[in-house]
Amino acid sequence: MSLNRNIDNWFLGYTRAVHSKSGSLNFGSRRPSKPLKTGTGLTNLRAAALKKPEVMVKIPKRHSKNSKGMKGIRNHADYVSRNGDIPLETQDGEKIQGKKAIKQFLNDWQSHFGIDDETKHKEALNIVLSMPKATPPDALLQAARDFAAEQFQGHQYFLGLHHSSHNPDEPEHPHVHLCVLMRDERNQRLNPRKNDLFEWRVRFAEKLRENGVDCAATKRVHRGKTQKPENSTLRAMRQRGISSEAELQQKLAISKAILSGQRPEHPFLNQADKTRQDIVAEYKKIARELYVRGYKTEAKAMSKFAREVSEKEFATQAQQEFDKVQAQIRQPEKSPDSSHDNEMER
Question: Could you tell me which of 73, 103, 190, 95 has the C-alpha nearest to residue 141?
């Protein structure tokens, strides 16, 4: 097996996209995705080592009853189109703009697929494809088109771009909202899993690079990050001055740890440490094989990446907060004249 294939298998965790062939690894009657490019693992790891921006593919969580059925699709279409101001693009490349045209388009969806206004299950999957603010919005939009056409073949969908170049009230980082009907032309429903989302990120990164955008699609663990980013809902609550139950529980646990003088422990840190060691070992192995094959620049980048990952801070948020407080406690108090004395000694 080739070096690229070995790296792909390890990097992607044997996802079906790497191996999908006619008649193989086809889950039920679901249409297999187009294979990812051979070498995509090394491409993304090298990009991460060079600190290229990470792509974001996110499925926003919406628990409101207004997010299900045709009612939910209409609400989302209003949001994506900014009530008709932003054009929506379909899987066929058709552009639909204006409240009246969008309403008719959604009526056609409802009648063709028999979607009730209110249902127990979501009838559409809402996805956000995003990059940092320096990314050309037109390149991101084309990459989103290419990604959707390849990943959701057989599904009806629409998408819309939000960016400050079109409206100063929009964010500076370009992002595309993609709304995909859950059922395809064969009535098979989407059921994305965690590794599917990673595969989607890798595919989106491929399309961005094809459109001239340098980027990476790696997992946090590949970059030596042990902490999850703050939940968007919890962040919004914190910004409004509202403390969540989880935040209150964490503060209580930290307070108890400080009073007892015992650093908080996390039951999964040992396993996380082992996982990091395995990843660093894999990076070193890849670097050696690249060097032997004459790819010295790539080998050097992977060796450096292995060192950086192994040296990353390895602590939970609670442990970091505990260490911060302990450092403040141990820091000797400065006398009022200490700053003056320091100046006199210079």
Answer: 95
| Residue 17, amino acid | A
- Coil/strand/helix, residue 189: strand
Q: What pairing do the DSSP bridges indicate for beta strands 124-130 and 88-90?
A: unpaired
Helical (H) or strand (E) element with 102:
helix 99-113
How many Å apart are CA 75 and CA 295, to the nearest integer? 52
Quick one: tokens of 177? 């909202």
Tell me which amino acid residue 271 is: Q
Distance CA 56, CA 26 (A): 27
Helix axes 232-239, 245-260, angle to 10 degrees: 80
Q: Tell me which residue of 198, 163, 166, 152 sits closest to 55, measured CA to CA.
A: 198
Work out whether the CA dihedral 118, 122, 170, 83 comes out positive or negative: negative
Q: Report the candidate in 182, 178, 31, 30 with the shortest Cα–Cα distance to residue 113.
A: 182
Q: What residue ranges define each of the domains in the chain, with the CATH number in brackets?
A: 3-210 (3.30.930), 244-330 (no CATH)
130 backbone dihedrals φ, ψ, rounded to 5° = -140, 155
Q: Which SS3 state, helix, strand or coil, does residue 78 take?
A: helix
Tokens, residue 175: 């992002």
In tens digits, the chain (346 residues) has pLDDT values of 688 999 999 999 854 443 334 333 333 334 567 899 999 999 999 999 999 999 999 999 876 667 789 999 999 999 999 999 999 999 999 999 999 999 999 999 999 999 999 998 889 999 999 999 999 999 999 999 999 999 999 999 999 999 999 889 999 999 999 999 999 988 899 999 888 999 999 999 999 999 999 999 999 999 998 755 555 554 555 566 665 666 666 667 667 666 666 666 666 667 778 889 999 999 999 999 999 999 999 999 999 999 999 988 766 666 666 667 667 777 765 555 544 444 434 4
- CA pair distance 97, 75, nearest whole angstrom: 15
Alpha carbon 133 to chain centroid, angstroms? 16
